[in-house]
Amino acid sequence: MTKQSGTEKENENALVISYLALRQSIGYVGIGMPCILAIGSVILGNCNEIQESISAYYHTVMRDVFVAILSAIAFFLYSYKGYDARDNVLSKLAALFAVGIALFPCRADLRTNCYIDLAHVNVLAGRLHLFFAVLFFLVLTYISLFQFTQTTDSKMMTNRKKDRNKIYRVCGYVMLGCLIAIALYWLWLEKRFQIWKD
C-alpha cells in the first residue's frame, strides 16, 4: 500500500467532510420539510391552514419547493455509495420512489382555500403517489432499522456507534408507527371523522 502525501490526505479529508456536510444538509432539509412548506405557504400564499399532508402542499404556492426538496433527496439517495450491495440497491430504490412521489401529485381536498391553479389529479395519479410514498417510507424504515445499525464487530462497537444506533432505531420505529397509524386511519377511522367534520 502506497503512502499518501499530505496534499492527497487533505484532499481526501475535504471530500469526506463535503460528503458528510451534504448528507447532513439533506437530513436537515428532510426533517425541516413540513415546517418549510407550512411557513412558506403562510408567507408567500397567505394560507393560514395546515394542509392534510405534506404532499398536499404540491397544490399550494410551495409546489416548486416541494418538488425541489424531493428531487434533492432523490439525487442524494441515488448518488449515495453504501457499505454493501444491499445498501446501494435500497438507496437507489428510495431515490426512484422519491421521484415517483414528485411526479405524481396526490389527490387534494378541495375544501381548503390555499390551493392555487389546482391541477386535475386523476385517480391513477393519486394512487401512484400513494404507492410510491408508502414504498419510499418502508425502504427508509428498513434502512434505518437494519442497514444503519450494522457493524462489523458488535464487541468492538464504540459508545458513539451505540448512541447513533439508538437514534436510527427510534427514527425507524417512529416511521413504521406513523405508517401503521395512517393505514389504520384510512381503513377504519376516516369515514367516522368525516361525519364529525360534516
Question: How would you describe the overall organization of this protein?
Answer:
The protein has 198 residues and is mostly helical. The protein has a domain at 6-122. The chain has helices at residues 6-45, 63-79, 85-103, 123-147, 159-197. It is globular and about 60 Å long. The model has no long low-confidence stretch (mean pLDDT 85).
Radius of gyration: 20 Å
Q: State mean pLDDT (0 to 100 scale).
A: 85
Instruction: Give unreliable regions as ranges.
Output: none
The count of strands amounts to 0
- Mass-distribution shape: globular
How much strand? under 5%
Indicate the percent of residues in helices.
over 70%
Q: Sketch the major β-sheet.
A: none
Structural classification? mainly alpha
Number of helices: 5
Taken in chain order, the helices and strands follow as HHHHH
* Separation, N- and C-terminal Cα atoms: 72 Å
